[in-house]
């Protein structure tokens, strides 16, 4: 992992802890959808000296597959390897739970995220056409492209 400063912890959020909506809404602008999947998900936090650096949300899609529903890092800390740290730790959680696949969905317009996930050995395995136009009230634009479809990327865990 490429996290510059290594004393970063990765822990499951306790039920009584405050939910880091500010971060979660960076990855998913719909609080309604976030609240819906949080009901059945585990939230993990990357922390350093008590400060929350990033968050990742894991949802059991099937008995064999866990989905990363949301991953977000504090904007001022982007590009330092914390997103990769969160995803690699999520892979370790999935392996411990004997899951066979870990997947993540992102928009056709999320060019940087598509780069990051493929660099971390996720491969495109599906497309949910019109997911963003059907499920979000306002149009979403990134990199000058409208977010219309969700691309699903999967990393197989069999060989790990
Ligand atoms: N645009 C361009 N490049 C990016 C982006 C981006 N949005 N995100 C990551 N990268 C690249 C980095 O430049 C870096 O490249 P390098 O290794 O060649 O230098 C590489 O991906 C690794 O990045 P990290 O530093 O590990 O990732 P980071 O800590 O920046 O976190 C994250 C990535 C979580 C996507 C962060 O940019 C973020 O919080 N974005 C806002 C929320 C978001 O879009 N979340 C994902 C939505 S999809 C979902 O949640 C299921």
Topology:
Layout: E1 9-12, H1 21-27, H2 31-38, E2 41-48, E3 51-60, E4 65-73, H3 82-96, E5 101-107, H4 111-119, E6 123-128, H5 131-135, E7 141-142, E8 145-146, E9 150-156
Parallel strand pairs: 4-5
Antiparallel strand pairs: 1-2, 2-3, 3-4, 5-9, 6-9, 7-8
The structure holds acetyl coenzyme *A (ACO).
Structure description:
With 160 residues, the chain is an alpha+beta fold. Helix content is 28%, strand content 34%. It is built from five helices and nine strands, in the order E-H-H-E-E-E-H-E-H-E-H-E-E-E. It is globular. The structure holds acetyl coenzyme *A (ACO). Residues 26-27, 68, 70-73, 78-84, 104-106, 112-113, 115-116 line the site of acetyl coenzyme *A.
Which key features would you list for this structure?
160 residues; alpha+beta; Aminopeptidase; seven-stranded mixed beta sheet; 5 helices; 9 strands; 28% helix; globular; binds acetyl coenzyme *A
Shape annotation? globular
Taking all Cα atoms into account, the compactness measure Rg is 15 Å
Sheet-strand content, in percent, reads 25-35%
**How many β-strand runs?**
9
Identify the CATH architecture: 3-Layer(aba) Sandwich
Write down the domain tally.
1
Low-confidence stretches: none
Estimate percent helicity.
25-40%
Helix-strand pattern = EHHEEEHEHEHEEE
Oligomer: single chain
Under CATH, the homologous superfamily reads Gcn5-related N-acetyltransferase (GNAT)
The overall average pLDDT, rounded, is 94
């Amino acid at each position: 992992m490429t996290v510059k400063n290594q004393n970063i912890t990765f822990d499951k959020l306790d039920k009584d802890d405050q939910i880091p909506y500010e971060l979660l809404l960076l990855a998913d602008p719909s609080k309604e959808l976030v609240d819906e999947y949080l009901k059945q998900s585990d939230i993990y936090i990357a922390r350093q000296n008590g400060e929350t650096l990033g968050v990742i949300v894991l949802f059991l899609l099937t008995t064999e597959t866990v989905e990363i529903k949301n991953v977000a890092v504090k904007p001022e800390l982007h590009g330092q390897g914390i997103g990769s740290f969160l995803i690699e730790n999520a892979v370790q959680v999935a392996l411990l739970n004997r899951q066979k696949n870990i997947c993540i969905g992102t928009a056709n317009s999320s060019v940087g995220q598509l780069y990051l996930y493929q660099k971390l050995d996720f491969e495109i395995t599906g497309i949910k056409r019109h997911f963003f136009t059907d499920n979000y009230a306002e149009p979403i634009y990134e990199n000058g492209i409208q977010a219309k479809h969700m691309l699903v990327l999967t990393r197989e865990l069999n060989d790990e």
